[in-house]
Structure formats: C-alpha cells, structure tokens
Amino acid sequence: MWHVSCVVSPCSGLRLMGCSKWRAAFNFGHLRVQSKLSVFFTMILLFTYLFYCLNGYCDSLPRPVYDQQSHFENKILLNDGHEASSPQQQQLGAHNASQVVREQLSDLSNSDAPSNNISIANNFGSKKFPQAIIIGVKKGGTRALLEFLRIHPDVRAVGSEPHFFDRFYEKGLDWYRNLMPRTLEGQITMEKTPSYFITKEAPRRVFSMSRHTKLIVVVRDPVTRAVSDYTQTLSKSPGLPSFQSLAFRNATTGLIDTSWSAVRIGIYAKHLENWLRFFPLSRLLFVSGERLVTDPAGEMGRVQDFLGLKRVVTDKHFYFNQTKGFPCLKKPEGSSRPRCLGKSKGRPHPQISSEVLHRLRDFYRPFNLKFYQMTGHNFGWD
Description:
alpha/beta, Rossmann fold, two-stranded antiparallel sheet, elongated, P-loop_NTPase, Sulfotransferase, NST/OST, transmembrane
C-alpha cells in the first residue's frame, strides 16, 4: 500500500485544501480502476455463459424436481389434448400424475445406469412387470425363442436370466421390476428363466405378482433334452461320469434315477400339475422345440398370436444353417453378417448306446402321454 503525506508549508493557508484535493483525486482514480475490473470480469462471465448456451450445454443442466413433476402432471392431466372437464376429474388426474412422478423418480434413482444429469423427460417409457414369461424348459429352445421374439418391435425383453422367482425372490418385486427394460404403450415386457418350470414355489410367486401373466413353455423330446443337458454339463466338466451311470440307479434292472436333474426336468406332466394349481391352461402356451428348428416361422406365428401381437416375425427372417443344424436370423438391416445362436447351441452330442436310449424312452412314455392329454397336443415323441 502506498503511503501519502502532505508537507506543511508556512507560506500559504491553502496547504490543507491542496492536500485534500490530491487525496480525493487519488481515491476516485482507485475506485475507477476497481469498477473497470468488475465490469471486465462480469463481461468475461457473461460471454462464457452465452458461448456455452449457444453450444447446447445449458440444456444438460438438471431441472428442479418440482419442475419435472409439473411437466408430468401437465401431461397426465391432458387427455388426448383436452383438459379434465370436471373438478373431480382434475383432482383424480392430479393424484395419478403425482403417482406417475413418484414411480418415474423411483425408477431413475434405482437405475443401474450411471447418473448423467439427463432429465426424466428424456427417459422414454416405463419399467413394468413382465406380461409374459418363458418359464421353461432348459435345453428346450428357450434362448432361440427369446432371440426370435426380440426381432418384434413390440417386444422388450431382459437379455440375461433374472432367476427372480427361484433364486432371488427375497430381493423383492421392486428389485425385479427395476431389471426390466423400459417399454412404451403397446409394447410387451418379457423375460425368460427356464428353471421356473421345475421350481415348486415359482407358480405361487408368479401368481402373487399377477394372475394375468402369460406363460410360455418350450418343450422337447425328453430323451433328446436329457442328452443335450448332459452334453452341456460335460463341456463344463470334462471329468463327468458317463450318461448311463448318471441316468440309472441300477444298470442291471434299468431303474431310472429321477433325482438326476437331467432326467427329472423331462417329466413335464408332473411340473405342469404344479402350474395348473394357480393358472388356467389358457394362460400357458406350449411351443415345440422340434418345430422351432424345422418351422421357426410357424411356431413364431403361434407365439405372436398368443401374446396378442401382429405377426411381424415371418419366414423372411430365417435361414437354415446346415453346419449348426439350426435356423439363424438373416442379416439384420445395418449389420454386416447374419445372427446365429452361440457356440453352445447345436453342439454335437456324445455317442450313447441305443439300449440306454430305449430304456429311457420307455420310462418317459407314460408321462408323455399324460402331458399330451393335459395340454391337448400330441408332440409326437413316441
């Protein structure tokens, strides 16, 4: 800081007035410098703000929650472009709007996606419980069915198996719903977990979620299915005992070991009885795993009808891959190659003696006949 002093001169009585004028001029100049600096920095901030806004950065700023809520309330209160005609309707609309906002905010806060300051208005659709579930069976063709269905623009499905109704039920329905993809009006939410079909508690749990859930079961010749199941396990555990030693309790008497899951899953009639205690037969669709290979478009037509969808997935979407012995999806628009299922699909089965297969087929025959009777459909496995 500068220090200014005035020398007192005996020659003039104006010495005090001169010092005062000098000090006033100095203070005024100092204030002018501060004012110019303030204006300068203000202009820098203003131009910076304008630059960012012109480049669209201002739009990414989060909107206040109350502003988002007002936005949703306005959308709900407008019914096809018209406001509610009575105070009662307006009050009901406001209540529904608040409920929707709470659900949307809950979905956003519970989402696994990282926060990126995108407003709720940019998240199209809502998360719902699945209206349809592929509940079984393992190695029957469930993955193929799901991939074929996902071509349909009105189907939104979880890619992985949630295993909610058999393994993670204690996590609660809110956790389950949050796993689902967002859907728009008219779209169907789906998931597939093949082990549901053989899980004793699953029918009651699905029914508790919604008694209107549509259930799809992909079934396949239980003997072929058991061999395919064993093949998959063998690929993961090369030291696995032989198929014959696992399938029979006593190879001499031919007594089948029903405790082995590969055998137990194929007793379809027993598992179906469990589901029919909670759901009418009309809520279930049984898809032939064999026909899903030989006539994928035909089976997909039945599935789309069952789900109430327009038949969009047709013959034009499929071609038969001779190497895999399985249908593949033709090259989607914008893709460089066709889409086939993974390496685990269509893998060659190990050689199993015809006598073992014959005994296993005799074991399944009465259960198959009962299953035909229960479903009203002969799958031709005998």
